[in-house]
Specification:
697 residues, alpha+beta, 5-stranded antiparallel beta sheet, 30% helix, 16% strand
Length: 697
Amino acid sequence: MTNLPPRKFSTSSKTSKQDSTPLQILLQMGFPKNRVLKALAATGNRSVQLASDWLLTHVNDAFIDVEQPREYIFYASPTGPLLTQLREFWEKSKVVSTWNRAHNFPPHITLVSFFKAPDEASLQLAKAVKQVVEMVGDPPMSQLKLEPYVSHNFMGLFLSEEHAEYLKKIAVQFVKEVSSILGVKVDTYEHLDALGACFPWCTMAQEKDISTNLEAHVKSLHITLAYHFEASAYDSLKKLVEELRPETLSSWELRLYSRDSRFANHLVHKVTQSYVPVANDELELVIGDYIYIEEKQFDSSPDGWVHGTSWLTGVSGYLPAVYTQRTAESDAWTLHRAITLGNNLGAESKSESETDADMASYPHEDLAQEKSEDTYKDWEKYWKAVTFDKAEAGILNVIGDKGLGLKSEKACGNGDTASMGDCKEAKAKDGKERRWILGMRHGERVDLTYGAWVPYCFDDNGTYVRKDLNMPIKLSERKGGKDSYALDTPLTRVGHLQAQLVGEGMRLNGVTVKHVYASAALRSIETAHSFLQGLQADPSVKIRVEPGLFEYKMWYQTKGMPTFMTTQELHDAGLNVDVNYKPYIDLDPNTPETLDEFFKRNELVMQSAWNESHAEGGNIIFVGHAATLDLMVLAFKRLAQGKTDEPNYQISQNLLRVPYCAVGAVRDNPWEVVSPPCPPSINSSSARYNWKMLLDI
C-alpha cells in the first residue's frame, strides 16, 4: 500500500474559527478595544456572547471608557459537606445576630489579598491558577484539619500548621506568577513591592493605577465565621460554632475572583421588586440585578430613596431602598477560574447540589426578563374590565394593539384579527387573507437554570439521572451522548410549559399556524413541539428543522459549535419533525461568519419560507433565539422595501430584553409590526429548596 504523503497546509487554509480569539471576534463586531477588554474581564473571559451582552447592557454606563483596573482576590474555598455546613451557619447567624462582615463573602481561606490588575491581564491571571497547581504539585494525602476559635470580636476555623504548608506554597507561587504578569519585582515571599522591573505590563502597571502590593497569606490561615458582630450576639454565635463539625470530609477549590474596584467600600443590594423610573434621575430596577450603594446613603436619606449604581448596566440613579435587599458583596463578583484540588484533600467529587454559583455568575441569555410597570398596568386594566365591566375576556380587546399605528384588534373566528366591531381588516384590500408571520424565542433552558449540569446528571455509564423536578424526565439517545447535551441543551419542564402556554393563548384567540420552522438547537425544536401541543395543531403540521435560524456562530468560538441531533434522532425522541424537509441553509460549524452573514442566512430562510408558502397561505412561525424577533422584523421590513443590499447588521439592544418564549408579530399585505395574537407571560423564579432546614424546627 502506498504511504500517505504529508499534506502541506497553506497559511490561509489553517485559519479557522479556533484561531480567532474572543478579543478579535468582538473587535470584528465593531466594539472599541478598551470596551472589549473591560467586558471580557468583567465576565471572566467566559465567552464572546457573555462579553457582547455586557457591552450592550453597559451602553449607557458613564464610566465604560474610564480605565479603572479591577481588583482580584485568590481563595481556597471548601466544597461539598463542609460548605453545606458553613452555608447553614451563615443563615442561622443572620437570624441570631445582625449582618456582620463575614456575611459579605462566601466561606473561604484567603491566600492572596485584593490586588489591582489591568483588563488586558485577566485571562493570564486565570491561567496562572492552573499553572500554580501544576508547579506546586499534588496536595497532601491527609484531610485538612480545621480548629474552631472563639473570641468576643472574632470567630473562625483555623487551619492547623501541619496542614497549612501546601496552601502556603500555593499562595507564594501564585504571587510570583502574578508579579511576572504585572511587572512587579518580588521582594519577599510574604510581601511583594513594585520596584519597576520591566515585565510585560510594567509601564501599564505604573500608568493604570495597578496595585503595587501583592500579599501572600502564609500566617494563621483560616475561615472567618463572624466578626464585627454585636456583643449581645456572642453567646448565640458561640453555640452555633460549637455545633459545627469541621472534621467533615470535604474537597477544596482554588478560586480567583474579581470585583469593580470603584465599589470596594459599597454595600451590595439585590433587586427584589422591579421599578420603572418616573423622573430623569431615577434608576430602573430589574429583578435579579445588584445595586451598589454607599452605607451613608441609608443614614442620610429622608424619604427611603437612596442613590445607587446598577451592576447590570453601570447606570446610576435614585431608587426606593425598600425594593432591594442586602446581600453578600461577593454576589456581584466575577469568578475567573476554579480549580478542584486533588482527591487527597477530601471527597472524590462535588456534591450533586454544589456548583460554582455561590456567587452570581454573569447571566446572558436570560439576563433581563423585564417585568415592566406598563405590563402590570395592562393586566390591571384587563382584570378590572373582566371583573367589574364584564367585558369580553380577551386581553387584546382591553389593552388594544401596540403596533405601529394599528387600531385595537379582536379575534375573528377564522383565526385572524380585526378592528373592534368588524372583521374586515383581517383581509387586505385585494381580498386575500392577511397572514401572521411570528418569531418566537425558545423556552427556559436547562444549562442556564442549573449551570454545569451534565457532570452531575449522567452516571459513569452515560445514563441520564434526573436530579430536579424541573429537569427533563428522560433524555433520548443521540450521537455524542452527554457531551452533545452539554453544548446543545434541552428545555426544562417549565420551558415546555412556557411554550405550551403560548400555543394555548393563540388557540384561544382563534389563531392557527400552518408552517413551523425551528432553529437546529434542541431547545428551539422542543419549544416548537410544545407550542404545537398547546395550539392543538393537526399532526400534519410538522416542524421544519432549519440550521439557518441558529444563533451567531461566533458566540460559540471558545466552547465549540454543538453537534445537532439528526431529524431521525429527533423523530425517534418523539418530536414532531418533518424528516423529509430539506433546509435552506447547510450550516458549516467549522467556518467563521460575520454579523452580516449571520443576518443574511436568517433573512434568506425567513423570506424564502414566506415566498414559497405564499400560494398555499397560512400563518408562519419561526422558533429560534432571542435575536430571532429582531431578525424577523428587519428581514420583512427589507422585503417590504425591496432591499437586497448588504444590511450592515448590528446586534440590537433589545436582545437582552427578550424573555423566554417571547413572541414578535408581523402581518403582510400591507407589512406592519403588530401586537402578537396572544397575551404575554410573566413568571417568578424560585431558589433551590433544602429540606434539611426542617431539622432545626
